[in-house]
Amino acid sequence: MQRGSGILLHVTSLPSEYGIGDLGPQAHRWVDLLQQAKQTYWQILPLNPTDSVNHHSPYSCISAFAGNPLLISPEQLVDAGFLTREDIQRTPEFSAEHVDYSQVISFKKKILAAAYRRFKKVKDKADYEQFCAANDYWLNDFALFVVLKDHYKGRVWSAWPQKMRDRDPAALEETNKKFFQKIHEVKFYQYLFSKQWGALKKSAEQKGIKIIGDIPIYVNYDSSDTWTHRDLFKLDAAGNLLFVGGVPPDYFSKTGQRWGNPIYRWDRLKETDYAWWVKRLAHNIGMFDYVRIDHFRGFLQYWEIPADEKTAVNGRWVDGPRDDFFTALLKYFPQIPVIAEDMGIITPDVTELMERFGFPGMKVLLFAFGDDMQKNPYLPHNYKNNFLVYTGTHDNNTAAGWFEEDARSQEKANLAQYSGHEISPATVAGDLVALAMRSVADVAMIPLQDILGLGKEARMNTPGTLKGNWQWRLASEVFVFKVMKNILELTESTDRQQGRKECKC
Predict the structure, then answer these.
(1) What's the whole-model pTM score?
(2) Distances (CA, A) of 481 to 27, 40, 196, 449
(3) Domain spanning 4-221+266-301+323-493: which superfamily?
(4) Are strands 243-247 and 257-262 parallel, antiparallel or unpaired?
(5) Distances (CA, A) of 77 to 31, 118, 191, 202
(6) pLDDT tens, residue by residue, 407-422
(7) Which of 159, 183, 347, 479 has the highest CB neighbour count under 10 A?
């Protein structure tokens, strides 16, 4: 990756009058701000549709291909002629500081339904029909899945009537006819998302901003992907889970983590030359300049847990597709713009594979100041170039929150010694940002919360908890402009500015 810097900020966290950040005017203003600060990258979390069952985690979605309709901009629907100003003026009192998903869903459902009613009266639907044709490899099944989930009152697909559960061709044909309008309504929302995202992506390209997307390695069990491609997952004849994904017990958890995602049948994927994964990557590469793959080590070995186990203790390591998968991908993608999430217990074979294919990895400064200050791989003096260095990620506390709540006294002392001066809650974020920016890592990626020096109240996610996650929002952009001047100066002084020629470091 080109030497530069960027900011980690999910779309939902952008300011907006409508309860949640979206793809509208504030997103375009954000891209302008990134350009003014001479940033090169904008990293976001997955954009796929979330649900209340999984507490709206962007890493637990009902489709690996669809976009989240909650991110559709009401203002742009007005500009496109699908809504009137009056339609979006009667809004609830939304919080400016966090997302109330139930409130947002109620509002967005109402205005999206109104937009569809107007769309049905449009005579020339050629652009919409072209979108549907270009995306029929996932869109038809996704739309039917969403409609059936609603029809069966939210029941998991394996509890649907047998013919629908097993995708009986005659039953599917009859259902598509019965729910014709509802299915096209779901497709229309995906069309709107695609148009708005495409406009934002084009704006970013014109301003020299490269967008980094995110792909969870696994998909949800109750998703259109699993329902449509049952043969690619370890399920029984009735569609029930045989094994689920997770990680084994470690320092952080005596029982490990049981994620509950279905496990791939990599042997069957190989028989198709990994066709489903090729389509998934192609779809994401079309949306983003780079894609970070969450839990990258799962391609080499993954922790397989029997589905009837309540914890991850009694799982086992199973070999993944390893080199064969990425060698196959090279037939379709001359360059694979993948960033490997290589956190946790990483064995030498993972590092070797990343180096062989040139995939950049990740370094997180919040992990750098524990024991063994000489050999700790997260300390800047141990970096190579082909990495992205973060102060923290969406799963970490903010830098200020970490210093006040999580850091041990020894970690604070080590950080002070490494920095060469005393550290306080008010200065720790700036100190870590400076360490990241001055490192030799090709990319310094900073969460906006740390640029602003915000505390624990601005944390995006706390792993292992269910409530209060994925809700943080930037209440106003006014004070961001002042702070971004500092990041501009640091970007230039560390030779990370957009459009740089040669590294001076």
Answers:
(1) 0.96
(2) 15, 17, 25, 14
(3) Glycosidases (3.20.20.80)
(4) antiparallel
(5) 20, 11, 12, 18
(6) 999 999 999 999 999 9
(7) 183
pLDDT in tens, 180-207: 999 999 999 999 999 999 999 999 999 9
**Band of residue 504 on the pLDDT scale cut at 50, 70, 90:** very low
Helical pair 428-438 and 478-493, crossing angle rounded to 10 deg: 40
Q: Return all residues near 348 (Cβ < 8 A) that are at least 6 apart.
A: none
Give residue 501's pLDDT band: very low, low, confident or very high (50, 70, 90). low
> Could you tell me if residue 274 is left (phi over 0), alpha (psi between -120 and 50 degrees) or otherwise beta?
left
Strand 290-294 versus strand 210-216 pairing type: parallel
User: How would you write 19-87 as a 3-class SS string?
Assistant: CCCCCCHHHHHHHHHHHHCCCCEEECCCCCCCCHHHCCCCCCCCCCCCCCHHHCCHHHHHHCCCCCHHH
* Sign of the CA dihedral with 183 first, then 184, 185, and 189 last: positive
Domain edges within the chain: 4-221+266-301+323-493
At which residue do the structure tokens 């996610």 appear?
A: 461
Residue reference for tokens 């550290």:
423
Catalytic residue positions? Answer: 294, 341, 395
Angle CA 363–366–372, to nearest 5: 85
Which residue in this structure is represented by tokens 């992990």?
367
Determine the Cα–Cα distance for residues 188 and 147; give it in Å rounded to an integer: 13
Task: Report the alpha-carbon distance of residue 180 to residue 173 in Å, rounded.
Answer: 10
As given in the structure block, the two tokens for residue 391 are 């102060």
